[in-house]
Amino acid sequence: MSRGLRVWQDMEKEQETLRAWKDRVARELDRVVAFWLDHSHDQEQGCAPCPSGGLGLGSSLLWSPRTSLWAGCHLWGAASAPIPLHPPTPDLANSANASVSHRGFFTCLGRDGQVYDDLKYVWLQGRQVWMYCRLYRQFERFRRPELLNAAKAGGEFLLRYAQVAPPAKKCAFVLTRDGRPVKVQRTIFSECFYTMAMNELWRVTGDARYQNEAMEMMDQIVSWVREDPSGLGRPQLPGAPASESMAVPMMLLNLVEQLGEADEELAGISAELGDWCAQRILQHVQRGGQAVLENVSEDGEELSGCLGRHQNPGHALEAGWFLLRYAIQRGDAKLRAHVIDKFLLLPFHSGWDPEHGGLFYFQDADGLCPTQLEWAMKLWWPHSEAMIAFLMGYSETGDPALLRIFYQVAEYTFHRFRDPEYGEWFGYLNRDGKVALTIKGGPFKGCFHVPRCLAMCEEMLNNLLSRLAPASALSTRSPPAGPARPGAE
Amino acid sequence: MSRGLRVWQDMEKEQETLRAWKDRVARELDRVVAFWLDHSHDQEQGCAPCPSGGLGLGSSLLWSPRTSLWAGCHLWGAASAPIPLHPPTPDLANSANASVSHRGFFTCLGRDGQVYDDLKYVWLQGRQVWMYCRLYRQFERFRRPELLNAAKAGGEFLLRYAQVAPPAKKCAFVLTRDGRPVKVQRTIFSECFYTMAMNELWRVTGDARYQNEAMEMMDQIVSWVREDPSGLGRPQLPGAPASESMAVPMMLLNLVEQLGEADEELAGISAELGDWCAQRILQHVQRGGQAVLENVSEDGEELSGCLGRHQNPGHALEAGWFLLRYAIQRGDAKLRAHVIDKFLLLPFHSGWDPEHGGLFYFQDADGLCPTQLEWAMKLWWPHSEAMIAFLMGYSETGDPALLRIFYQVAEYTFHRFRDPEYGEWFGYLNRDGKVALTIKGGPFKGCFHVPRCLAMCEEMLNNLLSRLAPASALSTRSPPAGPARPGAE
């Protein structure tokens, strides 16, 4: 056999594997999206949790424009709601949007999709709005009214209820089914997911209200992070070290990329912010390049104790693909290599469990036992992030070592997390890979990491196949849908 | 063999088993106390964590009465301490107490006792002071200066540093090694353990300062719980249900019993408070007596969602022995039977893992999957509390079914949690009983549940043996030390 033939056969084999993964990923994305469409939409119009103590899903509460009263829940009179319910927004009740019959999403879903709690977590509301819009915008097969209408209803729910005391921008962490705040976190993350949702909603609807909201909230977030955090409500205590969690610049960098997409003017304005975020994230590489630490001092030094030694391999990998995108956009090959080395390979090699496989949730940089009870569990999202990171790394460099790691992580992930019976993925495995929690959604798991991973991987695999394959090999498949333009609907 | 002989032989056998457990428990108590004496005492005088990023244990910082300055830490000048350090209390520096060379306790201890973080958690400082004093007061063999001096130094550390902004009584949750507040919880628990420590310190030293502190803090706690919680700093949010965690009346009942011990006047004054606590705890028996729920509404109804269905078998068992003591003191046999039924047998039977043994950490009253990642883990403290509860139940009723459960729990606990190599107990096992975290102490595990369980079990086993045994059988053993009087030292 000639060398040329062998090379051709190897290429053919690689394409086969990539194509098989592309098909597997695309089918899985369909199943996952179907799970959320089937189970997570609140079809009632703002019914409060039934005061009888049940989930209240069986009783509906409808706004009567005639009497300006909520009516329909037989137990409502007995409820001790500390504030009166708001009437629905005019556009929901009276305009073309009146066809939208659900508001926000249930995310506390059991294995089979059953709602086990009707609380609405703001992170997850924002993430699901973002995800539906992104799918609608980038995939022909998801350009369906049910996704768009659900995203708009979720967006309206956020607009009306997320901010605890408007005009102050601080958002709740969790709301009751009908939008009353239950808990407020003293961090920026509810607001970040709110911003992502609003910007993406604007991109699919063209409605300037959404973009104005996104830009105003972004200004507030940047001000909290870079100027004055006092509005977050965290007390300044003399013993608390001035520290930075990597999550903050990481999340901000993601927002810079979100808001700057296909908007050269905005991308230019926010370039300085993007550079700042990248520099701050890079400061978390410590110990002479041998460890990514989740928390460092304000001036980029290692902190003492458990806080300083804390590592979160999934976060490092997620920050890795945010930084990779940043390096690619700037054409910075040196940074790209550094990011692959420090934010992909390093956390993967130190975070992968040599005994049972899978990525540890938390680690201690000195190899001591972490104090978090769940440190050795395997969570779905670090694995989703790792799949994105390594496939992106391979797409950009062609380094087969990165592709091998993608396959290794993807095999583990599909084998362990995926639920072939009821759809979606389990979120929480024991160290040995057995399912520890059977829930499909909860306070932190919603319609986000799994479909984002699958959608991005499908797109990257498609692009790889387009580049690698002879024209004929892909001709029988539909090409990936191009991004829609803002206001294209 | 005559019936009389058989009964005598059965009694003899039961005594043998009880005696074996008493010896096992007493030996284990010695080992556990030795672990904390060996590893947890901060021998330096208030050295701040070394700004170099290490634990700072190797550098000492000494108060110089001559220059009125802290000196000795070569890196101190580089530290960015937001507030100046306080000088030591006069009695520590100048009085008879100057011999006390340590201040507060390290509780972040690895498997072998090594300090892996020097933060000082206020719950655990208070608990260790309480534990040392209680051992000193009730056991002849622990009436040793090293326990008393360490307890006093811990008490002085709390007096000086626990309150975040005196004269306000709110205490920190965690302090730096030198006493600067790092975090404040918006609950009453730091203050409760502070009160326990102060009252017990007064009982062994007779120093009225400690008792005044205990009484003032108790007044503040009761006021927060029964009158106005605003000082705790929790925002009142319209969507948050007015709920009661069982931990609150449970903790208060424990304090009522602590403060009222051998003090008839105080016991009389606080009788109403004790009754209130007991009634509030009893409200957590829900669903027609079929479940103890951790959270109920202010008026004792089940709450909706996960919050309402949440169960914590260890808490129910701990509340069980607090209530059992309460019922015994009041001579209320009907309540005693109710408590054994609902707070001992019910949580044990529903909370014991039929597959692997051990008590689940959390459960959902509908049998759904809890959302807490650690729900199926086996923690040390529910098992310690179960040992106390069932041995107390048996001591009071003579019901052999309760003794059998004590043996079952104690066997599991000694087999799984005890570390024969380095002493003390592991705190956190996976569902299958394997050690998940090798630490012996951390933010929530200190010198408390294990020695309290062992000390109480030793005392109860001694009393049982005294009651059951022919006089000769115990004559070769030393009787348990009687409680010391306040100010007896």
TrEMBL record, chains A, B:
Keywords: Isomerase. GO terms for biological process: carbohydrate metabolic process; N-acetylneuraminate catabolic process. Its EC number is 5.1.3.8. It is an enzyme of class 5 (isomerase). The keyword Isomerase applies. GO terms for molecular function: N-acylglucosamine 2-epimerase activity. Pathway: Amino-sugar metabolism; N-acetylneuraminate degradation. CDD domains: AGE. InterPro entries: 6-hairpin_glycosidase_sf, 6hp_glycosidase-like_sf, AGE/CE, AGE_dom. It catalyses: an N-acyl-D-glucosamine = an N-acyl-D-mannosamine. It holds the Pfam family GlcNAc_2-epim. Belongs to the N-acylglucosamine 2-epimerase family. Homodimer. Forms a heterodimer with renin and inhibits its activity. PANTHER family: N-ACYLGLUCOSAMINE-2-EPIMERASE. This is N-acylglucosamine 2-epimerase. It comes from Bos mutus grunniens.
